[in-house]
Amino acid sequence: MILKNNLxxxxxxxxxxxEELGTNVGVSRQTIISIERYRYKPTLELAMKIAQNLxxxxxxxxxxxx
Amino acid sequence: xxxxxxxxxxxxxxxxxxVFTLIFLPYxxxxxxxxxxxxxxxxxxxxxxxxxxxxxxxxxxxxxxxxFKKKEARDERDDMINSKSYKLGYLLYEFSLFIFIGxxxxxxxxxxxxxxxxxxxxYNSFQLTDGGVVFFILVLLAFTSIxxxxxxxxxxxxx
Lengths: 66, 159
Prior knowledge:
The complex is a heterodimer of chains A (66) and B (159).
Chain A: E1 2-5, H1 7-13, H2 18-25, H3 29-36, H4 44-53, H5 58-61, E2 62-65
Antiparallel strand pairs in A: 1-2
Helix pairs in contact in A: 2-3
Chain B: H1 5-23, H2 25-30, H3 42-67, H4 76-117, H5 120-125, H6 130-158
Helix pairs in contact in B: 1-3, 1-6, 4-6
């Protein structure tokens, strides 16, 4: 099972740039890019911060795929 | 290929390690047969290395700050990349220490064997000198540092 996410779609729906989201949750733009490309798996703390910032439930943002 | 501030900062370290290896290591290589106290201009060379390092890093980081005015946040991804690369560096350093111990041991071992043959010239060439030890340690440190930084750079590009 691979941990995937809808971060790019949700972020774009909210009209946020990678830079803005990164600043809001206290990480760099590169980290947001890496999460969106499934290269980097965020810690639970960061995942919750992102979900909270995007006003979405964490399980809707991050999910397991086969 | 666009590089971030952190990636450029790593490249600055890699370039320094390579330039240091190419410019200063030959000096220690030439003097590896001598004891430190007998090496010509050692103090001058150390001062030269220190001053050139300060100038290089000051200029490189000042240029980096001017080019990238915006401060980049340090986050958990940086911590993860740093812990992975430093772990590799630490393992290489440990491995290097074993090589170093083997090097010292082989010098003593071979010296004892050569003593039995009675060949004085060959026996003398197996002297373990301060200069040789310093050269060997510098080579290992430069090698470890370059590999660690390159791995760190690779992780920044791929993670």
